[in-house]
Amino acid sequence: MSETNGTPSAWDEWKALERHHAEVSDRHLRDLFAEDPDRGRRLSLDVLDLYVDFSKNRLTGETLELLRALARRADLAGGIEAMFRGEKINVTENRAVLHTALRAPRGATVEVDGHDVVPDVHAVLDRMGAFAGRVRSGDWRGHTGKRIRNVINIGIGGSDLGPAMAYEALRAFSDRSMTFSFVSNVDATAFAEAVHGLDPAETLFIICSKTFTTLETMTNARTARRWCLEALGDDDAVARHFVAVSTNAAEVSKFGIHTDNMFEFWDWVGGRYSYDSAIGLSLMVAIGPDGFHDMLAGFRAMDEHFRTAPLEHNLPVTLGLIGLWYGDFCGAQTQAILPYNQYLWRLTSYLQQLDMESNGKSVDRGGAAITDYQTGPIVWGQPGTNGQHAYYQLIHQGTKLIPCDFIGFARPSHDLGVHHELLMANCLAQTEALAFGKTAEEVRAEGVPEAQVPHRTFRGNHPTTTLLVKKEITPNVLGQLVALYEHKVFTQGWIWRINSFDQWGVELGKVLAERIVPELQTTEEPDLRHDASTNELIRRFRAFRRA
Ligand code: F6P
């Protein structure tokens, strides 16, 4: 694997960006646009179904050139090749990182330890297609012979957020005669509400877990089995009502699901990069195999772009570098994702895991502490225009620097007259208002009383990137969008020299929870050996629960 040694903040390219920031930091977007009437067109990229305008960011052509020099110094191109070639860039788990192989075309070759994985990927896709087709057509029946009408995906994190987000995004393409729900939380409410009013004889559970040991998923899966078998009264019903998606065949069998009903994926697919693997089975049942393959084609097109486009035309690289500019040189802590599309209402939750679990790291790939630069941002947001009536106030007039991605669509999914133009007018107006604001002079000229002028002034200069999709949301477009963000995250993680593909930070809480469970359950007085706060909270919980 080619790598450039040393902390990036010590590189000349990094220092050049620090100096450049000192020179340009007081420049307002108003000035940048006034100086360059062509800026809107010049600072944009047209890639596949996306037109991306990044001109309303606090940067110049020179900023981008310096950022690209940093990417070259980090050997980003070498990193991209290493990932696509299947090198073991997940160094702490000694694994390849090959979600891109999940969408490789039939006949391509991608090797892991000398084994071509593409035929395996397509064998599973074919099995998924056959299964999804049988459920959709009614050929796959429940234990009593009834048709399956409800599909419940049980999983958490990457085994939930991807399929749940994509199902919501592509609802318009789904089989409306069926219901689809997603149970992740170990709070029994999630399960109870998902099965409320459902007939177990018509319900199929897809248990998704890479490890098949995750506490929340296994607890919900056992509850689902009980719910199903209590109604159907026969252990054989499991074979018709439960299928598994996992890398762990032994645990799947132990749970009681025959491996004939298991759909496999591999340790070189990270959980948060997995919904285009068999983890997307519920989505495939919903939108059909053709829709799923169309989505894979969208992923693949963005993969090819990322792998082959030069840095200056490379969309994921450009978005990654802009994000790095704000976090490392301008002091931003967060990144807002604001889709102007109701179908994308879960996109930000999905991207939270993708970005924050990947790049929320503070040691580099070699294990050295990162002390003098920022890694991944806090990702947040909700669909517009709802956010406009809630938290946009802070973006416009608060004290924080918040780079925002606005995602809009040229065509509506439902053409109901004026709605789409209203939606998109709001999207575009917000980016305009954020960039250019309204000066005190402009406010005064409207006759506003002097005491109110400061309150009604918008300083502007708030950075936004607008992703304008040339059509409506489709499976293919969704694939392009998700791959774009996957590769943006890769770009940043590579330059920060972190391992974007492990997640050791989730372990400690899991271990401590396992220790606390018996202390909450026991009827004896437990011997509590936590800190004073945790001990007291456990005592109070036990007392309130008994009362
Ligand atoms: O706890 C975090 C995590 O390991 C995620 O990375 C993963 O997506 C999720 O849990 C679920 O894991 P699994 O698919 O093994 O149940």
SSE blueprint:
Blueprint: H1 12-24, H2 29-35, H3 39-42, E1 44-47, E2 50-53, H4 61-73, H5 76-85, E3 111-112, E4 115-116, H6 118-137, E5 150-154, H7 161-169, E6 179-183, H8 188-195, E7 203-208, H9 215-232, H10 238-241, E8 242-246, H11 249-255, E9 262-264, H12 281-308, H13 315-329, E10 334-339, H14 347-359, E11 378-380, H15 392-397, E12 404-409, H16 419-436, H17 440-445, E13 464-469, H18 475-496, H19 507-521, H20 532-546
Parallel strand pairs: 5-6, 5-7, 7-8, 8-9, 10-11, 10-12, 12-13
Antiparallel strand pairs: 1-2, 2-13, 3-4
Helix pairs in contact: 1-4, 4-13, 6-12, 7-12, 7-14, 12-18, 13-18, 14-18
The protein binds 6-O-phosphono-beta-D-fructofuranose.
6-O-phosphono-beta-D-fructofuranose binds next to loops.
Can you tell me about this structure?
The mean pLDDT is about 95. The chain is globular, with a radius of gyration of 25 Å. Helix content is about 45%, strand content about 10%. It has about 550 residues and is an alpha/beta fold. The strands form three sheets. Strands 1-2-13-12-10-11 form a six-stranded mixed sheet, sandwiched between helices. It is built from 20 helices and 13 strands. 6-O-phosphono-beta-D-fructofuranose binds near residues 158, 271, 272, 357 and 503. 6-O-phosphono-beta-D-fructofuranose (F6P) binds near residues 217 and 503.
The best one-word shape is globular
Distance linking N and C termini: 60 Å
Helical amount among residues, as a percent range?
A: 40-55%
Proportion of residues in β-strands: 5-15%
